[in-house]
Design brief:
Elements (H helix, E strand, L loop, with lengths): L19 H6 L1 H16 L8 H20 L9 H23 L1 H4 L1 H4 L8 H30 L13 H23 L4 H15 L12 H4 L8 H12 L6 H32 L1
Length: about 280
């Protein structure tokens, strides 16, 4: 009898399991995916990672002209550049993670059909790759924040900035939850892949990024409950700019909705990974 170790691969029976231990065993593969995603996206660009800085910079400047000057939309008495950038960098992180996770099965069907590894490694790697982008854009936000501060602009920085990593974690888990839901559907219905950019664009305008939540009439604010991205954006603005609107009741319901999305997303993802090769 051979003394060589034997690896037995069994199907996933527990739909609720994340298999963190198994993911940890494949941590080198996750890091390889992170490097692949980063290099692939910018390999054929001239400016490379500088696009991480150019995109939020020019987007914020455009919002200042269109929404700040022409439409004259309030930014709750905070510098327009900081207000728009605060929303953009957090929304960019969520939307990028969500979009990448949503296409997990479709874009990796050939790889998944050839070799076994925890399928969750791919969306986790996409989330980590996007964190690099977030770190660069957040650093850009801090640069502008410091410039406004030394120029005497009153900024209501408060102790809640310590929760910034938790905001990032919340957005990461939320994007994974929504993304796992959509990835299961796109594995069967490719129309959703085409509709996804349009949905993300509409979702952005349903989130207080180019306008403050304080402008929304009270009777309509309850609609923000169904948008669990709102508490993260508003909490970030309160922490760094002292300008934001948080209703603890509404925020609690949004977070509860996010927990349901994440929980059910895990179930749907674990169920789909068993049979998606046969459906794609």
């Amino acid at each position: 009898m051979s003394d060589k170790p034997i690896t037995i691969i069994k199907p996933q029976n527990n739909l609720f399991a994340l298999n963190i231990g198994n993911l940890w065993k494949y941590r080198d593969l996750v890091l390889m995916f992170v490097k692949r995603d980063f290099n692939t996206f910018y390999k054929q660009t001239i400016l490379g990672p500088l696009w991480f800085i150019i995109q939020p910079l020019f987007t914020s400047a455009m919002y200042m002209v269109i929404f700040g000057r022409l439409a004259n939309i309030s930014t709750d008495e905070t510098p327009q550049m900081l207000f728009y950038m605060a929303g953009i960098i957090n929304w960019n992180y969520f939307s990028e993670c969500f979009s990448k996770t949503s296409n997990t099965f479709v874009e990796n069907k050939n790889l998944f059909g050839k070799i076994y590894f925890p399928r969750l490694a791919v969306p986790i790697a996409s989330t980590l790759t996007s964190m690099i982008r977030y770190a660069i854009q957040f650093s850009l936000f801090l640069v502008f924040y410091f410039v406004f501060f030394i120029n005497g602009t009153p900024l209501s920085l408060n102790w809640m900035i310590v929760f910034t990593p938790l905001i990032l974690l919340y957005l990461a888990l939320l994007s994974l939850g929504f993304g796992m839901w959509i990835s299961a559907l796109t594995a069967k219905y490719w129309d959703l892949k085409m509709a996804l950019p349009f949905v993300v664009q509409l979702w952005m305008y349903a989130t207080p990024i180019v306008y403050p939540l304080s402008l929304i009439p009270e009777k309509y604010k309850v609609l923000m409950i169904i948008n669990p991205v709102v508490p993260a954006i508003e909490f970030f603005k309160i922490a760094w700019l002292g300008a934001g609107t948080i209703n603890p009741y509404h925020a609690g319901l949004s977070v509860a909705l996010a927990a349901i999305i994440i929980f059910t997303g895990i179930i749907i993802f674990n169920k789909t990974e068993k049979t998606f090769v046969d459906t794609i």
